[in-house]
Amino acid sequence: MFQKRVLLSKYSNFKIGGPAKYFFEAKNVEEIIKAVKLAKRLKTPFFILGGGTNILFSDKGFNGLVLKPNIKFIKRNGNFLRVGVGVQISQLLNYSINNNLTGLEWSAGIPGTIGGAVRGNAGAFGGEMKDIITEVSSLDISEARFKIIKRKKSDCCFGYRSSIFSAEGGSVSGGKNSKTKEIITEVVLRLKKGEKSKIKEIINRNISYRRKNHPLGYPSAGSVFKNVDIVDFHEYEREYRKYLNKRFVKISGKFAPINDGKIPAAYLIAEADLKGISRGGAMISSKHPNFIVNISNATAKDVKNLIKLAKKEVKNKFKVDLEEEIVFV
Question: Does 226 have pLDDT greater than 70?
Fold first, then answer.
């Protein structure tokens, strides 16, 4: 059933956002098609919502249709899992534990749905979605006659927090500058047989790390900015290979940590003396500076002001541009 004037703050980990003009949860591909056709007929923009974990909704809401594909199933064939786009990562992780399947331990503590994780090639603790994906199915909505497209991993253009689906230009469609042409519907994952005790041990270790180092007591969208490639620090570009296998590099007189050839955005924000800085009800976390947290009824404007400040100060100090990982709607 289509709903009207649904507060998007209820569907955002930030707990921020005004009302959507229309809201619809689709339980299957047929219902997705129905919703998209209606939006096109009404000539209204529509937004594809996953788990709402990396989204900042506008205080004014969304003047169109918010479509949430809530397709939830997990089907096993040996070490292969076929998973619906609306399955929560935590649910999938529990399934892997109960079935002694390893390969998902890195995702422990990551909120959201499998669809969002595929779109942004979610990753942590040295693992990424692309490591376990074999196939992704999506609904092509670019033409009047919709069709399902199946892609092997090699055709999905997975990169750092990106894929062919995010490269389309976001999840807003039907508007003047629409670029989105596909909606992910399901994914096939390949895991491996493992020992339940070892799987649970790794998961518990990763969750403990998050509890210790992330500000989980406040609403947030997780990491706001992508980590920065070492090659973006131009004085080190020629020596990039030299630093690939090192853990630290000297920048501005201090030793910055390196993780897979990238400088953590949290380090850069902390070195710009922005830990604990607040605007309205939002604050740059002192515990993890790449998190902006909602400490007291923050607005989207409050969060955007802090994002603007962080980008400005990091640019002034390090001469590099921070790129947002979160999506603005």
Answer: yes
